[in-house]
Amino acid sequence: xxxxxxxxxxxxxxxxxxxxxxxxxxxxxxxxxxxxxxxxxxxxxxxxxxxxxxxxxxxxxxxxxxxxxxxxxxxxxxxxxxxxxxxxxxxxxxxxxxxxxxxxxxxxxxxxxxxxxxxxxxxxxxxxxxxxxxxxxxxxxxxxxxxxxxxxxxxxxxxxxxxxx
Length: 165
Prior knowledge:
Blueprint: H1 2-37, H2 44-75, H3 81-97, E1 102-103, E2 108-109, H4 114-134, H5 157-164
Antiparallel strand pairs: 1-2
Helix pairs in contact: 1-2, 1-4, 2-3, 3-4
C-alpha cells in the first residue's frame, strides 16, 4: 500500500513542479513585453489563461524526461536537492531542444535562442527543487521495511491469576 501512496505523492510533486515551471516560463517570456506596453494593468483573466497554457505546455513536454529522472532517483534512493535541481535543468533543456529543429546532416540544432534556452533550463531547475520539496526528500522510502511492532503491554497481575485458576 505504501507504493500507491508514493505514486500519489510523486504525481502531486510533478503537478506542482510543472505549475511553478509554467509560471516561470510565462512570466519570463512576457516580462520584456510588459515593460513596452505602457497600457496599464493587464487583465487578470488573461494572466490566468496564460498560466494555464504554460502549465499544460510544461507538463506535456516534461512528462517523459521527468519520469526518467524520477525513476532513476527512486531506484537509486537519491534524495539530494542538488540532484533534483540538475535533473530539472536537464528536463528543461530537453524540453527546449525538443522544440528546436535538428539537422541530421550537420548534427546541429538550428535556431537556438539563448534567452529561451536559459529560461527553460532555469524553470527546470526551480521545478526540480519544488519536486524535491514535495516528493524527492523521501525518494525510495517506499521500499524500506516497516518498523517492527512493539510487543503489547503486559497484562495486569490480577488478570493472570484469574486465567490460571
